[in-house]
Amino acid sequence: MGKEISAPLARTARLLDLVPFLNTHQGIALKDLARHFEVSASQMSADLTTLWMCGLPGYTPLELMDLEFESGFVTIRNAETLSKPRTITFQEGVALLLGLDLMVATLPEDRDDLKNVASSLRERIGDKLGVPVHVQATPAIASPVMAAVHQALAEGSGLQIEYHSLYKDTLTSRIILPNEKHELNGNQYLRAFCFTAEDFREFRIDRIKNAIKADVPQRIESNELDAEKIHYQITAKVLTRDIAERFALEQKAVDYSLTSYSDQWIERSVLASGEGVVLRAPEALRTQVLATAKAMLDRYEEA
């Protein structure tokens, strides 16, 4: 069953969209109409009843819309004044322009045909709504990088990337075989086999500074991925937003059992969290974090 939409503004927008849709889909089944607008059949019947009482001033049967839907199939007549789709607002126009920019940024370099169509559509929307042409969105991920990632995933090919490692604060060159792309906490990640590290890794795509196609050995299966992970446990003494995002904590709790691909990342993340996080296991990593923290404090005392 479709979802109910009863908010006044949402329902008004749906009613305005219903008229031009019905004009081009005469005789559509009521259940299909409800499914298209993602509402229940009873909600759609209520909407059609409301439209039945709409029309031009005078509001006699000659000016009101004429709908037929008791048979289970919907037809509409005498609705010429609302036969065109509703006009988008200035804010909606800006959103469309920004969305076009972000979409074009993900296109491959050789798709000039799509880029030209998007550019033409952008100019038409801007002229129609009076939106400044210079309004544009800049994606967090460089378009050549995203295009290379999509191509590698589609073809099963390798990539040579320049990657900024946050926990080491260095830019490294790596040869990888992408496996899949996913999103977490608003960031896009690329899971891949790294031939440089000879292990599976996850790369945050906005930290990939450059990516070009590279020849790699045959496809690496990921059935041993979990065995390569480092299992660790933390206690979140203060669950701030920064800590939740850093460790990808999706629910409020105190103790967490997590995994990572790098003990250096765990060490740096725990230290960056200050008193908000306590590392409980593994013991060897706890010792390393303690030694690093002590060394940092000793430097402050020397200064």
Description:
With 303 residues, the chain is an alpha+beta fold. It folds into 4 domains: 75 residues, Arc Repressor Mutant, subunit A (Orthogonal Bundle), CATH 1.10.10; 40 residues; 56 residues; 74 residues, no CATH class. The chain is 39% helix and 24% strand. The chain is elongated, with a radius of gyration of 28 Å. 16% of the residues are buried.
Which radius of gyration do the C-alpha atoms yield? 28 Å
Overall number of domains = 4
Which fold does the CATH topology of the largest domain refer to? Arc Repressor Mutant, subunit A
Percent helix: 25-40%
Inertia-based shape: elongated
Residue share in β-strands: 15-25%
Could you name the CATH class of the largest domain? Mainly Alpha
Order of helices and strands: HEHHEEHHHEEEEEEHEHEH
The total count of strands amounts to 11
Number of helices: 9
Low-confidence stretches: 1-5, 222-227
Average predicted local confidence, pLDDT: 77
Describe the main β-sheet briefly. Answer: 5 strands, antiparallel
Oligomer: single chain
Give the name of the CATH architecture of the largest domain. Orthogonal Bundle
Distance between the termini: 68 Å
